[in-house]
Design brief:
By secondary structure, the protein is mostly helical. The protein is 61% helix and 0% strand. The protein contains nine helices and no strands. The model has no long low-confidence stretch (mean pLDDT 93).
Length: 174
């Protein structure tokens, strides 16, 4: 029985090459790059002369401009808002990606300004409220509100969209 030979342990050059390929292929944050490099080190081991320094490599990529956490936060929050996700869900996603609070400021402002339109997109996608064919029965209404809440919208917004009559979009509160 012949099996694949395991890949050789990583050294500085191989780790840097892995990081470069990953950054070139995906839009990622510093935290996600660090998690990727640590996973690769666990999987393949370290064979370099110096101790492995994934933190230093990630910091160097930030210095070189290969990684921009603030730009990533704006891009990711806009993409999630276009899919209809609310502020809470977007915040959780950015926090999980390792984005620092200071790098989330511009994204947070964008999220706040687009909250109503994100709720509209979510209602349209799920065919709820003004996009439903008929009013929901009480059990369906509860499920629809729960879906809004899971998507990160607050309860008041969820209730306004779910309770809207088919064909009549609710007015945004000032």
């Amino acid at each position: 029985m012949t099996g694949k030979r395991p890949p050789p342990p990583l050294d500085e050059e191989a780790l840097r090459d892995l990081a470069l390929r990953h950054v070139a292929r995906f839009a990622i944050s510093r935290g996600k790059l660090l998690a990727y490099l640590q996973r690769k080190l666990r999987d393949r081991g370290w064979g370099g002369e110096q101790p492995a320094d994934p933190e230093g490599l990630a910091d160097r990529f930030v210095e070189l401009g290969y990684i921009d956490d603030a730009g990533y936060a704006v891009m990711k929050s806009a993409a999630l808002a276009r899919r209809g996700y609310g502020a809470r869900r977007i915040e959780e996603t950015l926090r999980a990606a390792g984005i620092a609070e200071s790098d989330r400021e511009q994204a947070n402002a964008q999220i706040a300004s687009e909250a109503w339109s994100a709720a509209d997109r979510f209602a349209r996608r799920k065919r709820l409220g003004p996009y439903a064919m008929a009013p929901l029965d009480p059990k369906q209404r509860e499920k629809a509100i729960a879906a809004f809440l899971r998507a990160g919208h607050d309860y008041a917004v969820a209730r306004r969209w779910v309770d809207a009559a088919p064909g009549e979009a609710p007015e945004e509160e000032a």
